[in-house]
Design a protein that fits this description.
CATH class of the largest domain: Alpha Beta
Radius of gyration: 17 Å
Number of domains: 2
Number of helices: 6
Order of helices and strands: EEEEEEHEEHEHEEEHEEEHEH
CATH architecture of the largest domain: 3-Layer(aba) Sandwich
Shape: globular
CATH superfamily of the largest domain: Nucleotide-binding domain of ferredoxin-NADP reductase (FNR) module
Strand content: 25-35%
Structural class: alpha/beta
Distance between the termini: 34 Å
Strand order of the largest sheet: 4-3-7-1-2-6-5
Largest sheet: 7 strands, antiparallel
Number of strands: 16
Helix content: 10-25%
Length: about 260
Amino acid sequence: MKQITDFTIIRRQQLGESYFSLTLRHPGLLPPIAAGQFVEVEVCNSREVLLRRPISIHDVDSQNQTLSLLIQTVGKGTRRLADLREGDTLNLVYPLGRGFAVAGANPLLVGGGAGIAPLLYLAKCYREKGIRPTILLGGRTEALIPVREEFEAIGATGCATEDGSLGEKGLVTQHSLFNLGYDHICTCGPTPMMKAVGRHALAKGIPCEVSLENMMACGIGACLCCVTDTDQGHKCVCKEGPVFDVARLTKWLSI
């Protein structure tokens, strides 16, 4: 059930030049949250930023009633959020969208850039089921792959950078871990990366879920600005996604 709540920032951590994380405490009890769901964040005290910003839920700690956001500073909205400090309040609409299925006994999680964010909580959900996922993280440089140590504590983790500054040089789809025998793939990141992963999964007959990114002004399917074309017609990414079975996205893959 969707809620609108003022959270208190209990921790702010700068992660290199491009990323920062916010750990937010709920004033009461967190509702159930699925890996892959997102929040709509209010950007206060800004005349330039009128709409909320959709941000993936990075981690959830139900015992301590906290959730975490991993944010890349890319525009006016995220720059305003980067100015927040511990003790400040942040208003969220949450939890929104459809999350990952947490399926398979030998899953592969593939993240690129800011798409790494929802995969940490997903990896922890697999661990809770007694499953150790394989994780591939990609970025142009080492600086653009944050929090990899947290992933390494959960499952076998490989990194790919275009400049070779971390892990294997090249794309995640060229990494030595990519072509092993997985029975489920989950991916989030740049569209070209997700399409490459999705095409590979379809060719190999591996179930695959992709988390699409689109402009999401409302987060509840009312404004229709995030509609994408699927094999079952036009769907709102914010409401019927952001996670989709890639088998429903053959039109999207072909673009």
